[in-house]
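Students often ask why inverse folding is considered easier than folding. One informal answer: many sequences map to the same fold, so there is more than one right answer. In these notes we will look at a single instance of the problem. The structure comes first.
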């Protein structure tokens, strides 16, 4: 596909867009079929101006996506059901939009990874998938977005870098052990996305609907100000839950401790700001750190890379 001005509108079926390596303006797609029914796509680029596509999803795949950088927006062009979604760096989503037509736009430094899977293959691999996922697939269309946990971001980053190295050595098909490793990571990506999007059902046997509602309220309060976390006692008082129920409930519902979740989301926000080219010292200060070395240590613990190294890689 030839380069086009940023203002151009491209009438593009998904099967054509992702049918192989392609260039769109300052962006490049790289796709590889890991096995029949499972494909991996990496999209990278640096956009001085936004680009927009009119797209038609004729691929009929479930997509597990992780945005490492940049911003994407998608709005459906459907008279019966209009929707608009935005996916920023540091976010993930699970989507299924067969035959949907819409408009997608992208801006900034784009880096995203997508694992696309045939729904029948997913059902064969995961017959005991969350009932909510089966229900949404039965509805024929859904989009579920979440913050990308540290493990998912690290997995997506490693897969993207592996694809980059493979392309540099001319191994565009990922031969041998490289393909096996990548397939394994694709399963990790999909499982993490399913867990993030539909994992609440694990707690339903032990938590009432009212308790889950209060715990989600506690999470919202916890993350309202990422410069300083409220105490667990404060969260308990605000939600009417016992302190021990808050502690145990966070692990049941969100698979993390109260302060573990706070720190993870704090570092995800830090990464988003660094990718947006904010100075390291300013990001540290804005997120409540008075000591830059403490911020750098926390960031490295979360992502395995120093903030300054992340900025140099841009």
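Output (designed amino acids):
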């Amino acid at each position: 596909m030839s380069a086009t001005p940023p203002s151009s509108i491209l009438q593009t079926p998904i099967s054509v867009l992702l049918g192989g390596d392609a260039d769109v303006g300052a962006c490049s797609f790289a796709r590889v079929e890991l096995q029949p029914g499972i494909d991996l796509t990496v999209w990278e680029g640096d956009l001085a101006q936004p680009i927009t596509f009119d797209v038609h999803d004729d691929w009929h795949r479930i997509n597990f996506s992780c945005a490492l950088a940049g911003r994407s927006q998608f709005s459906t062009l459907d008279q019966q059901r209009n929707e608009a979604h935005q996916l920023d760096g540091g976010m993930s989503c699970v989507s299924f939009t067969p035959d949907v037509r819409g408009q997608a736009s992208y801006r900034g430094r784009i880096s995203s990874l997508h694992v696309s899977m045939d729904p029948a293959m997913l059902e064969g691999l995961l017959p005991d998938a969350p009932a909510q996922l089966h229900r949404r697939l039965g509805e024929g269309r859904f989009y579920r977005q979440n913050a990308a946990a540290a493990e998912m971001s690290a997995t997506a980053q490693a897969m993207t870098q592996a694809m980059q190295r493979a392309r540099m050595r001319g191994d565009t098909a990922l031969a041998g052990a490289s393909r096996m490793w990548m397939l394994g990571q694709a399963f990790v990506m999909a499982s993490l996305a399913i867990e993030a999007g539909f994992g609440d059902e694990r707690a339903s046997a032990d938590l009432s609907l009212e308790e889950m509602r209060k715990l989600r309220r506690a999470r919202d309060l916890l993350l309202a100000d990422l410069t300083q976390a409220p105490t667990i006692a404060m969260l308990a008082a605000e939600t009417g839950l016992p302190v021990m129920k808050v502690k145990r409930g966070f692990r049941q519902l969100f698979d993390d401790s109260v302060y573990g979740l706070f720190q993870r989301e704090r570092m995800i926000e830090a990464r988003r700001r660094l990718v947006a080219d904010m100075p390291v010292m300013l990001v540290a200060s804005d997120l409540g750190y008075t000591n830059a070395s403490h911020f750098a240590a926390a960031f490295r613990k979360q992502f395995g890379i120093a903030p300054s190294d992340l900025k140099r890689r841009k």
